[in-house]
Give the backbone structure.
Amino acid sequence: MPELAEVGDFCPNDTCPNAGKTDEDNIVKYGTTAKGLQRYRCKTCGRTFSENTGTIFYNKHTPAEEIIETLALVAEGSRVASLSRVKGYKEETIRNWLQQAAGHAEQIEDALMSEYEIERGQLDALWSYVGHKGQDEEQESEEGEKRSP
C-alpha cells in the first residue's frame, strides 16, 4: 500500500500538470506565514500554499489545538450545545468543524480501503441492541403483563 502524502509533497492546484503527483521535485519551501506556518511554492504552476492547505484548519482563526480538543470532546460524548457554552464557540461553528472532519475522514478511509475487498463484516453489538430495543416491552404489553421499573 502506498504511503499517505504530506503537505509539501505535492501541488494541491487542480490545474497544475503536477497536481497530486509526489516525487516530482516541483515543491520548494517558500518562507512562513504571519502565524508561523510553513509556506510552499510549486515550481511548475507558481502557486503558493501553506502547510494547512487542504486540512480542516485551513483559513481558520481558531488554533488547531482548540479545534482538535473540541472535536475529541464531541467524540467522547459531550454535547455540542454544552461545548458551545463552555468553549465560547457557536454551535454552528462546531458542527461545521464536525462536517469538515467527517469529510476528511471519508477521504482517508477511501484511500486506505481502496485496495481491500471486504468479503464479510461484523455488526456492532450496540446496533443490534438499538435495533431490538423495546421489543420485549411491546411483547409483554400485548400479553397483558406489566413490567416493574
